[in-house]
Amino acid sequence: MTQIQPSTETNQPLLYHHNNSNPTMDVQDSPRKSYWRCSKQEFFPEPSFKDLSSYRTALSQICPRLKDRLLSRSTETHELVTLRRESENPMKKCLTWWDLMWMSFGSVVGSGIFVITGQEARENAGPAIVLSYALSGFSALLSVFCYTEFAVEIPVAGGSFSYLRVELGDFIAYLAAGNILLEAVIGAAGLGRSWSSYFASMINTKNPDFMRIKIASFADGFNLLDPLAVVVLLVANSIAMSGTKRTSFLNWIASIATAFIIVFIIVVGLIHLKSSNLVPYFPNGAEGVFKSAAVVYWAYTGFDMVATMAEETKNPSRDIPIGLVGSMSIITVVYCLMALALTGMVKYTEIDPNAAFSVAFAQIGMKWATYLVSICALKGMTTSLMVGSLGQGRYTTQIARSHMIPPWFARVHPKTGTPIYATLLTTILSAIVAFFTSLDVLSSVFSFSTLLIFMLLAVALLVRRYYVKDVISKNDSVTFFVCLFTIAGSSIGVAALWNSGVRGWIGYVVASVIWCSGTLGISLLHKNRVPKAWGVPLVPWLPSLSIAMNVFLLGSLGHVAFLRFIICSAVMILYYLVVGVHATYDVAHQDPKETEAEVGR
Fold first, then answer.
1. What's a Pfam family this protein contains (predicted)?
2. What average pLDDT does the structure give for the chain?
3. Is 96 left (phi over 0), alpha (psi -120 to 50) or beta?
C-alpha cells in the first residue's frame, strides 16, 4: 500500500472519493465531481444496503454485529485521518484564539442573563443570585476543562461525539450523537422562538405572541405557529454556511459592541448600588441559592459548540485553551457583576421578573437605557444562533463521516470550506420544530441532553487518563471501574436526597465520604496516559466533581424531562438497530487490503 501525501507544490485541496471497492485519495488532476450530486449510492454506500437481499442478510446478523459495535472503540488516527476522506474537501484552518474567545462569548452570552436573572433573584435566591451564578460558572468551567483537553488532543469537527467514540465506544458515542443532534435542533429552535418573542415584546409589551398564528385545533404547546422564528433561523444559518471566517468576523464585531453595553450596565448599576437592597442576602437560605444555580446554569451553555471548531483552528494546543478557558472565566465574572448590579439597583422583591434590567433602569430615571438592554439581548440571541449553527454543522459532519447517518451529509464545499449539507439538515429540522413548538416544551429536553453529555465527557476523561487497553493491569482495571461506579453512585445519592426533600446533614456527609473514597481510589492508580500539550489540572478530582455536579443538576429536572429523554432514546436505538449498526459495522470491517495506509501526524 502506498501512502499518499499532500503535494507541497500546490495550494489546491485534496479530493477524497468514497468508493467501497477501492478507496483512493486523488489529487487535483482528477476530474472534480459536482458537490451537489445526489444518489442512493451517495447516501448508503455500505455493502449492507446494496440491495434488499444484502439488507436481509445484514438483519440476520444483527446480534453479532451489535456485540461488535458495543465492544468497539475508535482510535485517534481513525478520527483525525481516516474519517476526513468522507468530506472530500478539507475545512479551512482559519481560526485563532481571538476568534475562539469571541465565538465563545457570542455563543454563551445570549438572552439568558437578561431573562432568568430577575426571575431567580425575585423567586428564589434574592441578592445571593450572585453566588448562584458563581456556582453554575464553576460547574460549567469544569466541563470546559474536559472539553479543552479533548479538543487539543483530538482536534476534529466532531467534538464530544469523537471524544466519546474513542474512549467509551461506538454505541455510547451513538447515543451521545443522537442527543447532540437533538440538542442542536431543539437549542436552535428555542433560540429562534426566544428571538421572535423578545422582538414582539419590544413592539407590543402586552402580547408577545401577537406575531404568531394561533391554530385552535392543535394541541397546547404546538398551536402557536412562528414564521418569524423560521426566518431568523434561515438567515443566521445562511451566514454560517457562507464561510467560517466571515461568520467569526461578524460575531466578534457584534460581540465587542455587546461587551461595551454590558460594561455600561455594570458600571451604572454599581454606581447606583444601595447596600440596603442587599439585605437580607439569603432570603430563602442555601436551598434558594442551589435552586437558582440549577436554573441559571443554562446561561452558560454554548461553549461546547466552540469546541467543534478545533479542526479549523490554526494552533489547537495554544488557541483552544486560551479561547475556551479564558472566555468562560471572563463570562463567569461578568455574569456575577451583572447580577450584583441588578440586585444592588433594585430591591429583589421589586424586580420585574419579565424585564428585570429594563425596568431597573427605568426606576433610576434612565428609560432610554432600556433600548440598550433590548438591543444587547437580541444581538446575543443572534450571535448564539450563528455560532451554534457552525457547531451543529461540524457535529453532524463528523457523525456522517462515521456513517451513523448517511455520509452524504459529511461533504465540505470546496469554495466555502463549510459543511453545507450538514448545516442544512439541522437548519431545516430546527425551523420545523421552531415553527410549531413552544419554549416550555423545548427547554426540558434540551437541558437533559446537555447535562448528560457533559457528565459522559467527564467520565471519558477519567477513562482516557487511567484506562488504556493492553497497558493497564487487570487489578488496576477492576479497581478503576469499582471507583468510577462509586463516584457515580454517590453522586446519584446526593441528587436523590436533595430532590426528595431530605435536608439533614447525615445523608449528605455519608454520600460525600463515599464520593471522596472513590475519587481517592482512582488518584492512587497509575496514570497510563498524560496529555501531550494541555491537560485538566487536579485529575481525578476535578472530573469527578464535574460528574457529581452534572448528576445533581440532572436530578433537578422534572420527571417529564426524563420521560421525554427515554422516548427519544428509544427512537434513536431503533434507528441504530435498523441502519446505524450495519453501516458502521461495514465501515469498520472493510478489507484491509483495500484500505489505504493511515498515518497520524
1. AA_permease_2
2. 85
3. beta
